[in-house]
Amino acid sequence: MDIEEFEKQQQPRAKRSRLIPFQAQIFELKTKGYANWQVCEWLAANGLKVSQEGLRKFIKSREGHPSPASMPNANKAPADAAQQNEETDQTEGLKGLDKKQRREKIADQYIKPEFTNPLLKRLKKE
Predict the structure, then answer these.
(1) Global pTM value
(2) Which of 41, 54, 86, 93 has the most CB atoms in a 10 Å sphere around its CB?
(3) Residues ≥6 apart with Cβ < 8 Å to 29
């Protein structure tokens, strides 16, 4: 049985949001600084009435996870590409470590040595 036959026999169980066809435009409006109520007005003008809370939940559930079809890599800003390269460089040094060791190694990058804290210096002297 190939996938086309399977699709004819079975219907997908997952519900699909009515906002998915507008996902790219929603995120574009949000990055330009439009408020949720303004995005809701734009959606209503395009025949889709949605509450501000519904829009907020949709955005929150997909924040940081844009659909590949709606956001092609060609439109990525150079800063995004640099950030992605930096993230992959960081994760390459973490290969082979378990979850706790990875977490600790990442935390060590952000924790300052104790001698930089003036209050701690004073307490150690006493």
Answers:
(1) 0.45
(2) 54
(3) 38, 39, 42
At residue 65, the pLDDT reads: 61
What length does the chain have? 126
- What is each CA distance from 81 to 63, 72, 73, 75, 124, in whole angstroms? 18, 13, 9, 10, 44
CB 92 within 8 A of CB 106: no
Closest by alpha carbon to 93, among 82, 85, 84, 102? 102
CA gap 24, 122 in Å, rounded: 54
> Is the model's pLDDT at 91 over the cut of 70?
no
Task: Write the single-letter amino acid at 29.
Answer: L
Q: Residue type for 5, please?
A: E
Mean local confidence (pLDDT), 74-99:
58
